[in-house]
Amino acid sequence: MWDPCDLVSPLAPESSRLQLDVLAPVSGKVGLLDAVPSSAFANGLFGVGIAIDMAGHRLQAPFDGILQDHTVSGEQLRLRSKQGLELLIQLGIDSHKLMGEGFKAKLRRGQTFTQGQALMDFDLNLLKRRFGIAHCLVLTSQTSKLSGIQAHCQSMLAMQEPCMTLHFR
């Protein structure tokens, strides 16, 4: 059986028709989802992509688009680019247990944003104190058109470099 998590690798696929870079929405070190201490995320239940071990306190828009939705507790956002790419961004693994504490949204559902715009401020120290680690997960569930996702496994500053490159068939 085909596993969508097999799409993600530090290497680019052998061939792709089109490539789309996704800029890092937070600063930190990019890694693969199998390093995340949650089987639901590591096994692609919410989508496939990368995990960033966060080093900042602000989530920025990786592209121009619209805020489709967010959880009531604020730790999870669904974004849609002008071109139709949908991303789920999750700040912290069990951060829903904070019930909104430490998250300050900058936009409401349905509002548009531009690349680099602040979407949320968050308390990184609180996340690390409560959960030991603080990952930002950048995921997509639109895998049917992808030939691969290249994870750029290195440290980076938000909005300076792509955290992953999507390769389309």
From TrEMBL:
<feature type="domain" description="PTS EIIA type-1">
    <location>
        <begin position="38"/>
        <end position="142"/>
    </location>
</feature>
<keyword id="KW-0808">Transferase</keyword>
<dbReference type="InterPro" id="IPR011055">
    <property type="entry name" value="Dup_hybrid_motif"/>
</dbReference>
<keyword id="KW-0598">Phosphotransferase system</keyword>
<protein>
    <recommendedName>
        <fullName>PTS system glucose-specific EIIA component</fullName>
    </recommendedName>
</protein>
<dbReference type="Pfam" id="PF00358">
    <property type="entry name" value="PTS_EIIA_1"/>
</dbReference>
<dbReference type="GO" id="GO:0016301">
    <property type="term" value="F:kinase activity"/>
</dbReference>
<keyword id="KW-0813">Transport</keyword>
<dbReference type="InterPro" id="IPR001127">
    <property type="entry name" value="PTS_EIIA_1_perm"/>
</dbReference>
<keyword id="KW-0418">Kinase</keyword>
<dbReference type="GO" id="GO:0005737">
    <property type="term" value="C:cytoplasm"/>
</dbReference>
<dbReference type="InterPro" id="IPR050890">
    <property type="entry name" value="PTS_EIIA_component"/>
</dbReference>
<keyword id="KW-0762">Sugar transport</keyword>
<dbReference type="GO" id="GO:0009401">
    <property type="term" value="P:phosphoenolpyruvate-dependent sugar phosphotransferase system"/>
</dbReference>
